[in-house]
Amino acid sequence: MKKPDSFDWEAKLTGSPLNNAGFNKELMRKVRERVEMNEHTSRKRSWKTAVVSSVAAVILFVGSVTLWAAPGLWEDTRTAFTSLFQKEKTPDKPLPQLDPEKEYTLKFSHFNGDNFLMMQEGQSFIIRHPNMNLQVTQPRDFSKQEDISTWLDKTAPDVITIYSTEEFTKLIEDNRLLPLDTYAKRDGFALGEEAYEAGPMQLLREYGNGTLYGLAPQFETYAVYYNEELFKKFGVDLPTDNMTWDELLALADRFAGLKDGAQTIYGLEGSRNGMFDLIQQIGMTNNLRMGDLEKGKAYMNTAEWRVIWERVLAAYERGTVHTPEFFDTSKSYTYTKLLKKDAFASGYAAMKMERSSYVSGLLEYTQKENKSLKWNAVSAPVYAANPEESTFYSFNAIYAINANSQNPRAAWELIKHLNSKEVAQSHSYTYEFKLPTRSDVKWKQENVRRESFYTLRPSIGKMDLIQSHFPLYSLIKQASIQADLAAQGKKSLDDALTDVQQEAQHTIAELKAKNEDANTGKGADSEDE
């Protein structure tokens, strides 16, 4: 059967001379006409296959010989044939609506357990979804050191509350979480900068190698809090965003030895956990490692770490840094009691490097104690090589959907609700100070600079550079003891660093051996299967 006239031009392609990139204008016009046609016939796939195969062969040959002769026509041809495939794409369909007559059971792991149902976000979800039976369970018990995957198989929640980025990463790597991008796109749930802060969203995607596997309503970072009155009284320039640690300590040094009446003034409030806390914070900012578990090496006695130890020791010796009273961590204390021993909250330390959540305690303490404290904040110190980035980023909780959920569509409704503008706005007006990841939420604390917490973006790829390599609890405890001994002059810096290095090496060796044994066991199990 003879082809229609509209197909005659296809036969001419094989005989077309290699001028103008192998195509004359008439044939190019026919190509474009064919690409734009939307014929729904049985010939559709066959003619496309024939055209693409024939022309692709010509294009490859021509491209190597005469592409330079007519770059404009080549671009037109490439665009025309690319569009051939683009026509085949199916647009994203809206998510199907939940059946309002059907009852859904949704299991949700949350730290507050059943109390979540009495919380504002829990009550508002139930009101909006009366046909959902929300069963709230406790998350994994960290004290039992149960494997997160084992716990997930045993409890089978539909929506998981994740409190550790290490757990979040492991669940992603093990394909235990559903990607959320498609749900959000099909449901019209905005994830761009018109709805979310770029930094937190960028970090969440980083854990999923570009794919979004969880959403977090709040995040936490650090800031440098400063006493406006002390800076004004002693004629010291106010701190600024994006300072390095050297600049911050130099500013703090200007308060060393000063007094306000009988009260000694300090430039910087230290940590109640000891001097090593400050050393560790500077090391984190400067992207230093304590060690590498895979290589089985400790890095605590390097030249870079030594410089930090020397700088911090000197600041303590000058009286620049105040050492808070030690509190027994095995006992519980009210925030108010803790802040009574806090030099910054009490008004005799000019600055303090602390979490964003410190704002809550500071506001509560000054109100209860009827203290007049004029303060503000600037961004956390930065590494000179990356002055726009911060390693001090973390999430309070990440909500994700179990990949084995029997109700993923209903689970998405809960994820969407917990991360909605409505819920974020309600949190911003509670007394507890939380940093919303959403960008469309009104800033409540008008007397606190919003930029202090949002001006720096997360240092992608370096967030857990220290912590992710091996557990630090025992090592940090020993390092803190050695640092305090050095500060008290009871031990030389050389001896302190040597002892810390040995402790770090011992810790890494034990953990490396433990991991290798675990991997060997897994291999043996696999072989048995």
TrEMBL record:
Keyword vocabulary terms for this entry: Membrane, Signal, Transmembrane, Transmembrane helix, Transport
Record field: transmembrane: 50-74
Domain of life: Bacteria
Coiled-coil parts of chain: none
Stretches with biased composition (Basic and acidic residues): 510-519
Region called Disordered, residue ranges: 510-529
UniProt KW Cell division keyword: no
Keyword Transmembrane helix belongs to the record: yes
Family as reported in the entry's similarity comment: Belongs to the bacterial solute-binding protein 1 family.
Protein name: ABC transporter substrate-binding protein
Organism: Paenibacillus swuensis
